[in-house]
Amino acid sequence: MKSRNVVRLFFSTLLIGGFSTLITSFFVKTEAYIKFMNPFDWFEVFGLVIFFLALGFVFSLISQMGYFAYLTVNQFALGLFRSIWPLLQVVLIVFALFDLVYFRYRSVEDGSLGIFIITAIALLVYGLVIAAIKAKETNRKAFIPALFFMIVVTSIEWVPGLRTSGGDYAWLMIVPLIICNTYQLLILHRLTKDKK
């Protein structure tokens, strides 16, 4: 990939992460904005906007590090495990989904098991859709790696958000992570395509 495309991918993903977090903050942290609406304090609202935009940039950087780490690990694992690497990825996908439900449920004191199951199912369904799109746009062998990235790597990237008290920052983090991961996964083959 040309350096121009690397820079383009970096900054476009950074902006997507920033603005998706900002938009998510309007829904997740509504009370923070309402506090400064009556009377309207433009300085405080501007500060909130800058804060959530910068937070989104951080989430975008986490997503980008996860993506390039996965590309490296995937190449290494293909050489090391060869034909069983797809099967190992499926096992890790199942474990990650189990982890999202069981270990998270055990770590909270007053959580409902249902919400953890719904979260894991939603991530699985979304991952299946994105993996199917990636496989259709590239080749069938890309399905399992794309699904692995969308579920396992996203879950790993989400760990800091899951460790916070309360669910606000968990939701603030997962939305930009999913959007940035989806964007990177679906744009990379377009950027690396040779233009004749």
Average pLDDT score: 90
Domain count: the total is 1
- What is the radius of gyration? 18 Å
Main beta sheet: none
Query: What is the helix/strand order?
Result: HHHHHHH
Straight-line N-to-C gap: 14 Å
Derived from helix and strand composition plus strand pairing, the structural class reads mainly alpha
Tell me the number of helical segments per DSSP (H or I, 4 or more residues long).
7
The assembly state of the depicted protein chains is single chain
- Contiguous low-pLDDT stretches (5 residues minimum) are none
Share of helical residues: over 70%
Number of strands: 0
Q: What amount of the residues lies in strands?
A: under 5%
Shape field: globular
Structural overview:
This protein is mostly helical and 196 residues long. It has one domain. It has 7 helices and no strands. The longest helix is centred in the N-terminal third of the chain and has 40 residues, at 42-81. It starts with a helix and ends with a helix.
Which features characterize this protein?
196 residues, transmembrane, 84% helix, single chain, mainly alpha
Topology summary:
Layout: H1 3-28, H2 30-34, H3 42-81, H4 85-107, H5 113-137, H6 143-162, H7 168-192
Concise description?
With 196 residues, this protein is an all-alpha fold. Helix content is 84%, strand content 0%. It is globular, with a radius of gyration of 18 Å.
